[in-house]
Amino acid sequence: MLDLMPSLREWQPAVTGQRCAVATVVGAGGSVPRPLGTSMLVSEAGEVLGSLSGGCVEGAVVEAALQAMHDGGTRREFFGYSAEDAFAVGLTCGGELEIHIEPLGSAPQGLRLEKLRALAGPGSASALALIRRVDANGGGAVVIPDPASFRVDSSAELAALMGLASIGAPAGRRLVRAAAAQLEPLLRGGRTGLVRLAPPEGCVSGATVPQSHATNSATGPEPGPEPINLLVESRLPPARLLIFGANDFSAALLPAAQLLGYHVTLCDARPAFASQSRFAGADQVVTAWPHRYLAGEAAAGRIDARTVACVLTHDPKFDIPLLQTALGLDLAYVGAMGSRRSHRQRVDSLLAAGVTAEDLSRLHSPIGLDLGAVTPAEVAVSITAELVASRSRTAGASVQASSLKDGTGPIHTVTTQNISTPQHQETPWT
Fold first, then answer.
1. Pair 137, 164: CB distance under 8 Å
2. Burial of 331 by CB count in 10 Å (0-12 exposed, 13-18 middle, 19+ buried)?
3. Which of 151, 248, 311, 327 has its CA at a distance of 20 to 30 angstroms from the CA of residue 363?
4. Taken in order 192, 198, 200, 204, is the CA torsion positive or negative?
5. What span, in angstroms and rounded, lies between the C-alpha atoms of 96 and 168?
6. 322-359 residue pLDDT tens
7. Contact residues for 87 (Cβ-Cβ < 8 A; gap 6+)
8. What is the mean pLDDT of the chain?
9. Is 402 among the domain residues?
10. Is 210 within 8 Å of 64 (Cβ atoms)?
11. The pLDDT of residue 426 is above 50
């Protein structure tokens, strides 16, 4: 949902105040085109903003959203692949999706279009999080302006969203503790996830709302009481990518890194190089000795565990003190350009400077994936490809840098499956 918000300022149904419904992927199994949390808005006139599957199921979802606006209640639709029924709506990729559909403003605490448009203002790249209830027994959402410091146990809004009459009751305290253990890491990490909580006895349930299930669903929802399902979407300010060295390779990497959403800083100690117009597109250009600049940024608290450092200077007098500083920090990625011969010399120098073998193991050198890259543009693709692979590994996915045509199994690895059918019930209640 957060990805759609910047477009709401220009989307005509939002501008003219039409009724809308939001359809969101809340469960995924096998190979699916879009991940958990992907949303699509549907207006009362059938206009669409966003996409859930690249075209496989959108038509059926639009129809379900229109019906939900007519009924005034939330719905869940299940889509899979049916080789037997050529006319069934499903995913040709063979995956399975569970879609939650909710008319905006239908629940007492629900999202409203005018509020979403207000949040999609000029500061739409700032920190923000949404926690939405997406099970059959509740609805609504809580907007969190500062997810990094949010405390579950101090939010009356979240307690009400979970159906708690009082946080102080024993059952309420247990639910809040369980919610905090799962919600807060997602919020502070800027991640999306579905949190499932066992409803405690005495919990005030939300209003029962209609459900609908697509005809190609093999089975319905699991029997018995449904857990409280909270969909978390958290957005932190853009992660920083620090490029050290002003040259042809950094000029190519700069826009490529910005496409991945990084806030890019170019740093070089030589004013004549850093001031070139081709680096004007950087979010920040700094003329300073690289290791001193990095140490100063760390001391000022402007470096965190999402920060990436790409050392492209290829000059030992800059590289060695810079890498020594970088490998002493908790950074997401540290890469250095150079040949294998340069790398061996670099390692010897770093070991002599006191860098441990464990810290050296975090160094991506030579930088980038082995794509046969030669030109600066190709090297930029190689580096950004390694950044994507590194981020995916950090998120828990098993990633190997190989051609998709040589692999087997699903293209997209789903780390948490939440399809509400017995054969896919892999996430236990808390």
1. no
2. buried
3. 248
4. positive
5. 40
6. 999 999 999 999 999 999 999 999 999 999 999 999 99
7. none
8. 82
9. no
10. no
11. no
